[in-house]
Amino acid sequence: MSYYELRAEQKGYFHFYHREQYETPAHFHGSIELLFVESGELPVSIDGETRVLTSGEGYFCDSFSVHRIAASQNTSSYALLGKREYFERAFAFFDQNTPPRFFRFDNFSLLRLLCDLCSQNYQNDRGRYATFEGTIDLVLGEIAKENPLQPKKTDKKNSLVCEILQYAEENPQADLSLLSVAKRFGYSHEYLSRILHKYLMEHWNSYVNRLRVRRADALLKTQTDRSVLDVAYECGFDSPNTFYRAYKKEFGKAPKRK
Question: Is the distance from CB of 140 to CB of 150 less than 8 angstroms?
């Protein structure tokens, strides 16, 4: 899994789904995301702010906000996300104001209807995009009934975390120890440790191992002629034991030897 979610950067990207919610590690993307909890409880973190959302609550995640959804059972939700361009018309109507980060929303009959409309087979992309833009207009209007929209805030810490995550994503073989990363970005070890733990909801070493082992797993599935250890070293692991422990922790089993 890429922690910089490149799929959400594709031209014309939008997505609207209803499903049981599962754990999503910390990540970011240029698309805007709205999530609505239909049932159950859902621990989430956005830009370092953590909440446990319950039925009838939702979140607004702006472009390049670092967000994570923790493990949860028996929780269903609706998620609506897409390129910022699809939201611009609605934002302009509200004087460039956006929903609060966390908000109340309980009109799930509307979400069901709109989700069904967005999942239809359209003859061309123009019809799909028009439907999605209309969906955003209706959803933001419904949110604004109970939740005053507000001016967008700039978060310098969030930008820093995105830069660090992108660096780690692009350089898995580099020295990604916290000391080395802190030196590279010009911050103290202690400061960066606090910021990263707040945003990621896990220790930096755990995050790096998760990033590397998921990349290794993807390579093992596509490059079947390579040995497990060859892939592990390419993905930044410095010993077989470290790799096997990280893999088993992430996937619950040992990687298959070739």
Answer: no
